[in-house]
Amino acid sequence: MTKVITYGTFDLFHEGHYRLLQRAKQLGDYLIVGVTTEEYDQTRGKLNVIDSLMTRIENVRKSGFADEIIIEESQGQKFRDIKKYQVDIFTVGSDWVGQFDYLKDYCKVVYLERTKNISSTMLRIQNKRIQRIGIIGTGRIAERFIPEAKLVSGVSVEAVYNPHTESALRYAGRWGIDSYKNLEEFYQAVDSVYIASPHETHYQYIKKALEHGKHVLCEKPMVLKGQQAKELFALAKENRLVLFEGIKTAYCPGFGKMMGMACSGLIGTVRNVEACFTKLENPKNRELTDLQYGGSFIELGSYVMLPIIKMFGHEPEQVRFDRINGENGLDLFTKAYFKYPNGLGTATCGLGVKSEGQLIISGTKGYILAEAPWWKTAYFEIHHENPSDVEKFSERFLEDGLRYEISDFLSLINGNKKNGFKLTPEDSVVMAEVMEEFLREKNHENMGT
Ligand code: CTP
Fold first, then answer.
1. Spacing, Cα 113 to ligand 1 middle (Å)
2. How confident is the model at residue 447 (pLDDT cuts 50, 70, 90)?
3. Closest Cα partner for 259 from 377, 85, 413?
4. Rounded to an integer, what distance in angstroms lies between the CA atom of residue 137 and that of residue 195?
5. Is the CB of 20 within 6 Å of ligand 1?
6. What are the angstrom distances between the C-alpha of 72 and each of 6, 8, 32, 168, 323?
7. CB of 121 shorter than 6 A to ligand 1
8. Ligand 1 atom, smallest distance to 123 CA
9. How many angstroms separate the CA atoms of 79 and 219, rounded?
10. What does 316-341 look like in DSSP terms, one character per residue?
């Protein structure tokens, strides 16, 4: 009996997939089809798979060619499967020519001619109109946005707006997009906006964008007042628009996995979260000179509050702050303490004090440890009472990682709510409330001194 194996995502099952499976089956007597998991696809840069794993498996099954369907979860699995199932022929479409020649030592490798003019990518684009994104603000983070957006199929960055026309023109020139002086014209040219302007301008820009019927992805901290956050989310809901706070950690695959593990009972009931993020900043930069909206907590607080809020929710009994201020009154180092009925959290951040940046999630049976840069989670460990009992987990975090949030933003716009839980409006509202309280205390104290 000749055993054949092939692999694929098989998203939006199409004629190309059908013909590939048909010919794969004809190569032998028994066909094994490996269907990729969403997590594996993400690590390969396929970020917009629409059909669930169940649907994709069902569609392969319905084609009638597969004798056995398996799940492909990781790199290196193909080699193991070939050994395990005693495969004679490995086959894939001709878009992969040469890429699997390394398997030739173990079985025959056949590249089948790819069916022309059809692909899942094409169907995804046809199904959903391309989202034209416009950028407001042209600072450092905006520079990272375009290269990452290019990796997400279904979005296209088309326009930029900045009241400082010079900066807008320079940015537009660098990235080959249009620059607008007039906000009304800018809104006409796009379907959604990415806001990366100074914090204090977010509220007005978000409101305007929503009023113009545009979806919004706004950099963190989205707003610095709880009431404003509530008002904006209500406005978005009323207009059936997506409003999304860009805290990249929330959308990165490793962080999601870690949160899932923490809630799974593996470390028992979670009782304490300690998150620390420090980054020595140039004292001349905006972060340490903007007397009203600079400082460590406003800059980094979103990251360190995130795991605490994800673990314990939206109703802390008490939040209080300790901070070390620089001469200009801005906090160089801050600790925010959260007290919940069943747990405690400490969010520590600093722009002028360096520390080991760790995330520790402690439970009644063990703890999770993620070293810096845990905010781009690529690796974490689960520890138990026995010090040698350590489980290790890794996930890929590619380059700047904004691709994950852009991809989730697009999924939500396209009506796919499966990733909405990663950062909910309620999460963003609590963060805004805590930031508001922090600023109130800071201003009060600074006025007194
Ligand atoms: N395939 C094919 N002809 C097509 C499309 C895909 O023969 N027109 C083959 C691929 O070469 C692969 C298998 O079908 O062997 C599964 O491909 P998959 O990557 O799931 O489909 P694509 O349409 O190529 O997906 P995408 O656009 O997301 O890359």
1. 11
2. confident
3. 377
4. 6
5. yes
6. 10, 9, 11, 45, 49
7. yes
8. 27
9. 42
10. -SEEEEEEEE-TTS-EEEEEEEEEET
pLDDT(449) > 60: no
What is the layout of strands, in order, in the sheet containing 30-36? 68-72, 30-36, 3-8, 89-93, 108-112
**Distance from Cα 104 to the centre of ligand 1, integer Å:** 21
Cα 268 from Cα 444, distance rounded (Å): 41
Could you give the CA distance from residue 274 to residue 155 in angstroms, rounded to a whole number?
36
Question: In the block, which residue shows the tokens 């049976």?
Answer: 365
Which residue's alpha carbon is nearest to atom 23 within ligand 1? 119
| Separation of CA 179 from chain center | 27
55 lines ligand 1 (CB under 6 A): no
- Could you report the per-residue pLDDT of 175-231, keeping only the tens digit for each? 999 999 999 999 999 999 999 999 999 999 999 999 999 999 999 999 999 999 999
pTM above 0.85, yes or no: no
pLDDT exceeds cutoff 80 at 43: no
Atom of ligand 1 minimally distant from the CA of 94: 11
Q: Compute, in angstroms, the gap from residue 411 CA to the centroid of ligand 1.
A: 21
State whether the beta carbon of 118 lies less than 6 angstroms from ligand 1. Answer: yes
Amino acid identity at 299: E
Report the atom number in ligand 1 closest to the C-alpha of 112.
7
Structure tokens at 435: 């930031």
